[in-house]
Amino acid sequence: MFSYGGAGSSNFALIPLNKSSNLPEEHNAHVTTIDGHGPNPNRQEHSHCHQVQFYQNCLYVNDLGTDTINVYHYNDTNGEVRLNHDRINTRPGAGPRHLLFHPDKPLAFVCNELDSTTCVYRIDAKLEHQQTITTRRTEDQQG
After folding, report:
1. Which of 130, 29, 125 lies closest to 84, judged by CA?
2. By three-state DSSP, how is residue 138 classified?
3. Residue 12 burial (CB < 10 Å; 0-12/13-18/19+)?
4. Rounded to 5, what percent of the chain is helix, strand, coil?
5. Per residue in 76-125, pLDDT tens?
6. Rg (Cα) of the chain, in Å, rounded?
7. Which of 28, 78, 81, 88 lies closest to 54, judged by CA?
8. Neighbours of 34 (CB within 10 A)
9. What are the φ/ψ torsions at residue 126 (nearest 5 degrees)?
10. φ, ψ for residue 138, nearest 5 deg
11. How many CB atoms lie within 10 A of CB 119?
12. Deepest in the core among 78, 104, 113, 115, taking most CB within 10 A?
């Protein structure tokens, strides 16, 4: 399965690969749209899916435009997805862009583009926020 969440896009697509890993016909794609916007009118006027990642039978979609991390259950039989629980809200204006899972511990790290922070989440039934770390020097932070 190939997934795509393009920058500036309000949707993401799951495209099944054939046995030779080539893309099949377009009509086999499952497209999911994310609605909403964030508080920054210049950067968050609508959903901006920036990363789509599979992890432990789930599909994680970071949405810079809505300040959310969307976790979907992935059905590998038919390629369909359904939202698990509610969207995970980040701090308003954070702009989650990239997500990385710890290789040995139940932790996820999310880099937020708009407020220059990194958030640490514990992975349980869903992501639980543990800590926010700024990536700016103190003198560069806005009050």
Report:
1. 125
2. helix
3. buried
4. 5, 45, 50
5. 777 778 888 778 999 999 999 999 999 999 999 999 999 999 999 999 87
6. 16
7. 81
8. 21
9. -145, 175
10. -55, -45
11. 22
12. 115
Q: What is the pLDDT of residues 27-45, one digit of tens each?
A: 567 788 899 999 999 999 9
Q: Can you give the length of the chain in residues?
A: 143
Its pTM stands at 0.82
Q: Which residues have a Cβ under 8 Å from the Cβ of 17 and sit 6 or more positions away?
A: 1, 2, 23, 24
Sheet with strand 30-33: strands edge to edge: 2-4, 11-15, 30-33
CATH says 2-140 is which class? mainly beta
Q: 114, 56, 57: which is closest to 90 by C-alpha?
A: 114
Provide the β-strand partners of residue 133.
Answer: 118
Q: Confirm if 11 and 32 have CB atoms less than 8 A apart.
A: yes
Which residues 6+ apart lie within 8 Å of 83 measured at CB?
70, 71, 72
Judge whether 135 and 118 are in contact, CB under 8 Å.
yes
Residues 68, 11: Cα–Cα separation, whole Å: 13
Query: 35: how many CB neighbours lie within 10 A of its CB?
Result: 10
